[in-house]
Automatic annotation (TrEMBL):
Keywords: Membrane, Transmembrane, Transmembrane helix. GO terms for molecular function: nucleobase transmembrane transporter activity. It comes from Exophiala mesophila (Black yeast-like fungus). It holds the Pfam family Transp_cyt_pur. Belongs to the purine-cytosine permease (2.A.39) family. GO terms for cellular component: plasma membrane. This is Uracil permease.
Length: 651
């Protein structure tokens, strides 16, 4: 926290004093003009000095304005209460709850950084290329991936090879997006919430961060409920009578049996959230060895029960004509939508890469191949259910459950137990990687003074438990609809981020200014908000909103053109948001951009500090708003270099 001296009171006192002295009424610090002050009279430096001492904080300004509107008596009472609170037990408890941060920060900086938000130090960059390979192999083997591929057959009417080609195409496209966002984290070693500040503004980035945090919490609940079904299968494999326990929560959308599994999985996930991000790579390594073996065993078991793979692959597609074509498009888009959150939050992991190239080729090739193998198993197993039972069972857990109901012997029950246990590990790893860490990082950015990644992960787990995730998994249609809705919002965020970094700034970021709320900072824009970023973000959502309303089942006819356009929701949202952002940035250029490709990660390689000293400050050109162009080496003006503060009209 910021320190104070004998002559400079705490920021809170300064602001209250300024409010009182600027009011046309009597000063709020005094009961009357003849009586002693309720609080010691502070020595207030000039307003210009205050601006040098403190960065303008959005919440401080809002509080000051609201406080000035209160009657004098309420102002006095509030000041007296705060004076008593400062020495109370509650105040000391609040101090203990504060996260660890760098000393010497201003109030505004305390709202922008803590140790989890700062660039990753060299000693914590422990992810090599094989760690990323293991991470994605582990992440690919999960039930969610399995169900997406299988639903292309049961819901889209595709043949097995149609669905598999959709998987290859969709996940390769997703891998390219992953590498684009991941490079930002790998070069500058910063997470998504910090990356978003360059395009949405220091304070404006909080809404995209909240948007993704909320979705990650919901998705955590969905994955946890699927993991709970795995736990239920494990219990049923040991005690078959568990399947017949009475349902005491009728009408809730789930059963007592399934809720018990959900509770046990959620409880067992809590210890995994405790470990820091750079150490959980060992969990993914263990998952990468165990889970694929169990998945292949399930594949062989299903093929044997279907009496060979021949009857499976000979099944024709149920759809034809335009329905078949739209089934292909839906399959590709569902694969991309499965990566919607990972596309945005890949910097949360890639920032731990030892070198930027460690997060490039390892992700580009492992993602499509790993997910294609998992999807192939899911497709064949789902198709085998058509041969065995005459109907497509798109959920592998339902198929395992059916195996148990077919008078399974002890050996078959043991097989179900092992496969279900592997799926538990698969769901745990996926939930930590895609949801817990991302939500924790986002919540850290929203409340850095009191929340770190670990605390944010536990908040995510609590929210995921309290929602009703089983409603999203009631059918394959509900499941794919939710995935599409997920893409509508996150594709627009991804479009703005990628366009800003690659096409507008050309890789150039002023790392220290991403943690500063000074008005003359290049990412402060208009009161900390970037109107370009929000105009592009809203445009990307707007083009899909009509189709989204139709997809969630709202009554009333919708224009078919909008419905068809929505089926390309990730592409349309991404293209429109990135295109609008680029055009607006050309019409009114941004500050701190480069004319050539210019990544400058060297600040993160040294001892990085966000504290501004008296010797530091913006040079004349930056604070004066001139159009000087800095050369890459000696500071001489040249065209192919960094443009500074060309958009002072924003501030």
């Amino acid at each position: 926290m910021s320190s104070s001296t004998d002559t400079i009171p705490p920021t809170f006192d300064i602001e209250l004093a300024n409010i009182a002295s600027s009011s046309s009424a009597r000063p709020a610090l005094f009961d009357s003009e003849d009586r002693e002050p309720l609080l010691p009279r502070p020595t207030i430096p000039p307003q210009s000095a205050l601006l040098d001492l403190e960065e303008p904080c959005l919440s401080d300004l809002a509080f000051a304005w609201i406080f000035s509107l209160l009657p004098l008596r309420l102002q006095e009472q509030f000041i007296a209460i705060m004076a008593r609170f400062r020495g109370s037990k509650a105040s000391r408890l609040l101090d203990k709850l504060q996260t660890e941060s760098e000393p010497g920060l201003t109030n505004a900086q305390l709202m922008l950084t803590n140790l989890d938000l700062k660039p990753v130090e060299p000693e914590r960059r422990q992810w090599g290329p094989w760690n990323f390979v293991g991470f994605w192999i582990a992440d690919s083997f999960n039930i969610n991936t399995w169900m997406i591929a299988a639903s292309m057959i049961s819901g889209g009417g595709l043949a097995w090879w149609h669905a598999w080609l959709c998987v290859w195409i969709g996940y390769f496209i997703a891998a390219m997006f992953i590498c684009l966002t991941g490079r930002i984290g790998a070069v500058y070693h910063i997470s998504f919430p910090v990356v978003a500040r360059s395009s949405f503004g220091i304070w404006g980035s909080l809404w995209p961060v909240f948007n993704r945090a909320a979705m990650a919490c919901i998705w955590y609940g969905v994955q946890a409920y699927i993991g709970g079904q795995c736990v239920t299968l494990m219990i049923r494999a040991i005690w078959p009578s568990f399947n017949d326990i009475p349902n005491g929560i009728e009408g809730s959308g789930t059963t007592t049996r399934d809720f018990v599994g959900f509770f046990l999985f959620s409880l067992g996930s809590l210890p995994a959230i405790w470990f820091p991000v750079h150490k959980i790579r060992h969990l993914f390594t263990a998952k990468a060895y165990f889970v694929p073996v169990a998945g292949i065993a399930f594949f062989i078991w299903a093929v044997v029960r279907a009496k060979g793979i021949g009857p499976i692959v000979r099944q024709p597609a149920e759809a034809s004509g335009s329905r078949l074509a739209w089934g292909w498009i839906s399959g590709i888009m569902s694969s991309i939508a499965n990566f919607a959150t990972l596309i945005v939050n890949d910097p949360d992991f890639s920032r731990f890469a030892a070198k930027p190239r460690d997060a490039l080729w390892s992700q580009l090739f492992t993602i499509p191949s790993g997910f294609a193998v998992t999807s192939f198993i899911g497709i064949i197993v789902s198709s085998s259910s058509m041969v065995i039972y005459g109907t497509a069972i798109w959920n592998p857990l339902d198929l395992l459950s059916q195996f148990l109901l077919d008078n399974a012997n002890s050996g078959e029950r043991f097989g179900v137990f092992v496969i279900a246990a592997a799926f538990v590990l698969a769901q745990l790893g996926t939930n930590i990687a895609a949801n817990s860490v991302s939500a924790g990082t986002d919540l850290t950015a929203l409340f850095p003074r009191f929340i770190n990644i670990r605390r944010g992960g536990y908040i995510c787990a609590l929210v995921g438990f309290c929602m009703c995730p089983w409603n999203l998994l009631s059918s394959s249609n509900n499941f794919t609809t939710y995935l599409s809705a997920y893409s509508v919002f996150l594709s627009s965020i991804a479009g703005v981020l990628i366009c800003d970094y690659y096409f507008v700034r050309k890789g150039y970021l002023v790392l220290k200014d991403l943690y500063s709320a000074r008005k003359d900072g290049p990412y402060y824009y208009f009161h900390g908000w970037s109107w370009r970023g929000y105009a592009a973000y809203i445009s990307g959502i707007s083009i899909n909103i009509v189709g989204f309303v139709d997809a969630i089942g709202t009554n009333g006819p919708m224009p078919m053109g909008a419905v068809y356009l929505y089926r390309f929701n990730f592409f349309t949202g991404f293209i429109v948001s990135s295109g609008v952002y680029y055009l607006l940035s050309r019409v009114k250029p941004l500050p701190a951009t480069s004319g050539v490709w210019l990544e400058k990660p060297d600040e993160a390689d040294r001892q990085f500090s966000v504290v501004y000293t008296d010797a530091e400050g913006y040079d004349e050109e930056r604070s004066g708003g001139t159009d000087v162009v800095y050369g890459k080496d000696d500071g001489a003006p040249e065209k192919s270099a960094v443009y500074v503060n060309k958009a002072d009209g924003d501030r």
